[in-house]
Amino acid sequence: MNKETAPLSEDITIRTATPADIKILMHHRRRMFFEMGYTDEAVLSAMAAASEPFFLNGLANGSFHAWLAENASHQAIAGGGVIVFDYPPSARDSSLQRPIIVNVYTEPGYRRRGIARKLMELMIKWCRTQNFGSIMLHASDEGRLLYESLGFQQTNEMRLMLQ
C-alpha cells in the first residue's frame, strides 16, 4: 500500500484523486446537488461543464485536493475535496489562504458505514498539516449532523443572491 492509499475496511480504501478521476468527481458533484433539490438537468449540465475545468486546473496547480473511497472492485463510491483559495487575514485567522471542503458525496448503497466521516477526518487532518486556522464548508441537511459531530459550528455568514 502506498502513502496515498488508506484502508477504511477490508473492502474499502481511500486514495488521493488525480486528474484522471475528473469524471467521477463531477458525477459526485452533480449527484450531490441533485439530491439537495437542484433537479433541473439543464442547470446541472451547465454547472458540471463549468466546474470540470475549474477542478482540473485546481488538481494541476494544487488549489484543489480530492480523495476517493473505493470498493474492492476499485469503483469510486464516495469522495470529497478541499479548495484552497487566497483570503485576507482576519482577527480570528491570520492565514493568507482558506480551505473550503466541497463535493462530499457517498453513493446511496454505501451510506451509513462511516465512509463520509472517514473522508472528513482525512480532509480535516490534511488541513491541519497545512497549518490552516479554520475550515469552511456548506452543509446539506443530510450532512449537517456529521459536520457538527466533527466540531463544525454555524456562523453568521449571510448571502444575497444576485441572479
Structure commentary:
The chain is an alpha+beta fold and 163 residues long. The chain has a single domain (8-149), classed as Gcn5-related N-acetyltransferase (GNAT) (Aminopeptidase), CATH 3.40.630.30. 34% of the residues lie in helices and 23% in strands. The chain is built from four helices and six strands. The protein has helices at 22-35, 41-61, 115-129, 144-149, and strands at 5-7, 13-16, 64-70, 76-86, 97-106, 136-137. The protein has a six-stranded mixed β-sheet, sandwiched between helices. Helix 1 crosses helix 2 (41-61). It starts with a strand and ends in a 14-residue tail after the last helix. The model has no long low-confidence stretch (mean pLDDT 94).
Give the tally of β-strands.
6
How are the strands of the biggest sheet laid out side by side? 1-2-3-4-5-6
Q: What's the pLDDT, averaged over the residues?
A: 94
Query: CATH class, anyone?
Result: Alpha Beta
> How large, in whole angstroms, is the Cα Rg?
16 Å
Strand content: 15-25%
> What string gives the helices and strands in order?
EEHHEEEHEH
Distance between the termini: 47 Å
Structural class: alpha+beta
User: Which stretches are low in confidence, meaning pLDDT under 50 for 5 or more residues running?
Assistant: none
Based on the coordinates given, report the CATH architecture.
3-Layer(aba) Sandwich
Anisotropy-based shape? globular
